[in-house]
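Fold it.
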Amino acid sequence: MKTVKKLGISSEKAWLMKQADCSDPSIRKEISFGVNDSKEKRESDKEKFRTGNYMELQSVTFEHKDLEIDFEGICLQKDSVKISYDRSGNILIGMDLLSQMDIHIGRSRILGKTVFLACPYDNMNSAYLQALNKHFDLQDASFEQLKNKSVYT
């Protein structure tokens, strides 16, 4: 069985981080409602938000500035990111982070299965281009084309 690395924190650590953000006046707080939230839940949450009862809210987000995320040596930076400590299940990587990367998803010629290859534009190099060529037969793709996002135009 293949081991998959999970990036994340424990529920206890998330609770402590949320508590710290709740008491920090320099961190901007917002309500982020779900599409299935009822009118009653929205009104109740708005009242809790107005009174500063952020720990009771699952719909509160905290804006962090100048965030840097490191994925095994691949560093992504963003001016601001909104964090929710109460979300569960799979987490989607925001388009604001993905937009900083060259991304290819498709059936690999050598593996015969769908693969995801990505590289931050700031870290583009010949090894990444070789991997693209190897898996997707993109021999005409050059570093400058990918960096300028013009391969498909």
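The radius of gyration is 20 Å.
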